[in-house]
């Protein structure tokens, strides 16, 4: 009976997760279709500023996909199974952003804390010599985001923290403790935003 209940909960949680992913994809596709050149201009800087980063400042950026946390309605063993499944699907969002930052001249490191166990020692090593951090949010990792921001601020109080992903796209806001949130396709705007930080513009 217990095994059947666990299987039922797993199927229910998988359905919820799959529905959320489909909805997030739909929203991002809608944003991609409707976003205007005017909005992109507001979020971006000149090519000259990005070239300044290439020539003079090799900024180092850490991109993080936070750990998923247990739902009140699902056991930790079920979440462990789901996390195992996530290891098969790398977080493409931060990889796209990483590629755009590399093309703009940044040094980039990315980590998924669902495939790598999270602890502060690993975070401290990753933060070493980094100038900025980018964190992806969704409905299932908000607790992980809050914990990350808190630990990052303890380790490096003045480092720049930028938040992106489906959650801040659907509900635009600045997450407490961060410097900035990016709604929509961050791979288009991230290089200019990090260039702004590198140039000392707040």
Question: Strand-residue fraction?
Answer: 5-15%
Radius of gyration: 18 Å
* Poorly predicted regions: 34-56
CATH topology: Rossmann fold
CATH class category label: Alpha Beta
What is the CATH architecture term? 3-Layer(aba) Sandwich
Helix content: 55-70%
Following the backbone from N to C, one meets helices and strands in this order, namely HHHEHHEHEHEHEH
Structural class: alpha/beta
Biggest sheet, in brief? 5 strands, parallel
Principal-axis shape equals globular
Number of helices: 9
Biggest sheet, strands in spatial order? 2-1-3-4-5
CATH evolutionary superfamily: Cobalamin-binding domain
What does the average pLDDT come to? 75
Number of domains: 1
How many β strands by DSSP? 5
List the helices and strands and how they pair.
Elements: H1 2-34, H2 37-43, H3 47-56, E1 60-65, H4 76-86, H5 92-103, E2 107-112, H6 120-127, E3 132-136, H7 142-155, E4 160-164, H8 166-170, E5 180-181, H9 186-198
Characteristic terms for this protein:
single chain, 202 residues, alpha/beta, Rossmann fold, five-stranded parallel beta sheet
Structure description:
The chain has 202 residues and is of the alpha/beta class. The protein contains nine helices and five strands. It has a five-stranded parallel beta sheet with strand order 2-1-3-4-5. Helix 3 packs across helix 9. The longest helix has 33 residues. The N and C termini lie far apart (58 Å).
